[in-house]
Amino acid sequence: MCKLSVVLVLVGMILTVSGRADVVPDVHKRMHEQLQAEQDNSQRFQAMVDSLTNQNEETEEPFNLYSTLDLDAGWDDDHVDPLLGKAGIAIPDSAFIPMKGFVPPVIGRVNSPYGWRKRRMHKGVDLKLYPGDTVRAAWDGKVRIRKFDRRGYGYYYVLRHPNGMETVYGHLSKFIVNQNDTVRAGQPIGLGGSTGRSTGPHLHLEFRYYGIALDPAQVIDLNTFRPKSEFYEFRQKRARQVAQGLAGNGTAAYHRVKQGDTLAAIARRYGTTVSRLCDLNGIRSRSTLRIGQRIRYK
Ligand SMILES: [Zn+2]
User: Fold this and answer.
1) Ligand 1 center to residue 112 CA distance, Å?
2) May I ask the CATH architecture of the domain 254-296?
3) 137-186, pLDDT tens digit by residue?
4) How far does residue 126's CA lie from ligand 1's centre (Å)?
């Protein structure tokens, strides 16, 4: 009786395995294709996570969200700008914000940079991803906002970090952590998607300091996805000007119009769009270009 049931179990296992045998290669093939397609990205990502993890292990600082700054200031679950409608929170004139421990939330091509876009400020950078890709916390931190904004960010988070920075993650398809959860740098917090005001799957990523949206390209190198330097130098006056689109981000560049140039051709050449050129130069898409005219493209 006992032996019989063992045999039956064994037969059952063999049947289960052989039953799945024809399914496995198919799944495997698809996984293999997907892996190959994402290999470059994942290898780059893993290398970065490894190096950053090692870097973090060298000095084992205790995780203390409230060690240096009053990080409860303006804590609410509603406003992306934590200072909105609140008095008595002083923004420092300048600060050096440590970048240590940063992990890229995703690694992907820049779909749309920070700055003027269709006559409104785009307060973050759009990074291409595939629906369902993992989105990770940029630093250790705490989830301040987890909300749905149908006409804007879609499903989004605002995380607050011990270095005083806040990060915003928009257009997610799924939440993984809860409001008020403490997260570690690199921890999966959500899956990428295209919810809210979005024309395709991407992560809308913002870096904010006291609510002021910084240019992500000035915080991290968007080719290597490493911090631009050990400390981000925050200057309130300058940051406000940049956030209001009143100042360039220090990387303004111009094209001198030549015979036969069109806005579309200039946009293509510099990897931007006609509407961005129009915003930057205060012109219309049908404006006539003069030979020798300077057109700002970033
Ligand atoms: Zn965006």
Assistant:
1) 7
2) Roll (3.10)
3) 999 999 999 999 999 999 999 999 999 999 999 999 999 999 999 999 99
4) 5
CATH code of the domain occupying 54-243: 2.70.70.10
C-beta of residue 96 within 8 angstroms of C-beta of residue 233: yes
Give the Å distances, CA to CA, from 67 to 64, 70, 164, 275.
Answer: 5, 8, 11, 45
How far apart are the CA of 110 and the centre of ligand 1, in A?
10
3-state secondary structure 111-131: EECCEEECCEEECCEEEECCC
Ligand 1 mean position, distance from CA 266 (Å): 23
Q: What is the pLDDT of residues 87-99, one digit of tens each?
A: 878 888 999 999 9
- CA 147 – ligand 1 centroid, Å: 16
- 210 token code pair: 């006291």
Confirm if 236 and 193 have CB atoms less than 8 A apart: no
Cα of 179 to ligand 1 centre, how many Å?
Answer: 22
Domain residue ranges in the chain? 54-243, 254-296
Kindly list the protein residues that place their beta carbon closer than 5 angstroms to ligand 1, a single-atom ion: 126, 204
Distance 101 CA to ligand 1 centre (A): 24
Cβ 275 vs Cβ 285: under 8 Å: yes
pTM: 0.66
